[in-house]
Amino acid sequence: MRKLFDLDPYRIPSQILGKPPVDFLRISADLPRRFSKALGIAEAQRSERPIQLFLEQFPVALLCLVRPHTAWVFPRLALQNALGGGFEPDFLICDWTSLGPEWTVVELESPTMQPVNARGISAACRHAQQQISDYRRIMVENTERNEKDGLMVGHRQAKSWIIMGRRLQISRANQSRLADLRQENIEVATYDRLLEECEAMADYRARQRKEAAKLKR
Q1: CA distance 119 to 95
Q2: Angle between helices 59-66 and 191-216 (to 10 degrees)
Q3: The domain that contains 180 carries what CATH number?
Q4: Do 80 and 214 contact (CB within 8 A), yes or no?
Q5: 88-116: average pLDDT
Q6: CA distances from 134 to 27, 64, 105, 148 (A)
Q7: Tag placement on the chain: N or C end, fewer CB within 10 Å?
Q8: Bigger pLDDT: 126 or 150?
Q9: Beta-carbon neighbour count of residue 8 at 10 Å?
């Protein structure tokens, strides 16, 4: 089997690491309900793990935030460094555009942890920011090693995401601090935002199916 780096970067492959792309057109109407249930469990457990498991089972929900072209979602995929150790982002998204593959790092934190506090950006958010920085560095510095494993991660890196907390009113100063992370090409989103994106996309696909059914009559 050919490695990913042997493929034409401008021709969309049928599989990456043996996986087909996620069918972004197939979003079930009950996906938001399932997501909301998983979110409630995560809050009760004060852990992001139930959300991690939900998004691994339903990766299309994560893509609602990215709005990709043709995309693969890889959970907890080890990125090798020069010393042989592995770094595992919660999710890596490969979006194959007309310019070739673009990679997005997604880090999850607990829905009970907020990105800001009274002193500014929280320690949990800073930790996720540092993790993303480490992953990006590994992807660039160890391109050849990762390509041998079938990952063209040194190609193009898109905006990364930190998903944590629930929506709340925050000061303008903290809004500006979170916005400053965009200078590092990092966006911070709450789970409410991701849930709303899922609801909007599920509704849109449901209306598309309804219109398609009318045309068949």
Answers
A1: 36
A2: 100
A3: 3.40.91
A4: no
A5: 91
A6: 33, 25, 11, 20
A7: C
A8: 126
A9: 8
Reduced DSSP (H G I as helix, E B as strand, rest coil) percent helix, strand, coil of the chain, to 5: 45, 20, 35
Look at the chain and count its residues: 217
CA-angle at 27, arms to 77 and 20, nearest 5°: 40
Over range 121-146, report the average pLDDT. Answer: 84
One-letter amino acid for residue 32 of the chain: P
Q: How far apart (Å, rounded) are the C-alpha atoms in residues 92 and 214?
A: 38
Whether 186 contacts 160, CB under 8 Å: yes
Average pLDDT on 147-170 reads: 76
- Give the least confident one: 12-21, 55-64, 115-124: 12-21
User: How far apart, in Å, are the Cα atoms of 28 and each of 15, 22, 117, 133, 194?
Assistant: 23, 14, 36, 34, 16
Asked if residue 141 has pLDDT above 60, the reply is yes
In the chain, the number of structural domains is 1
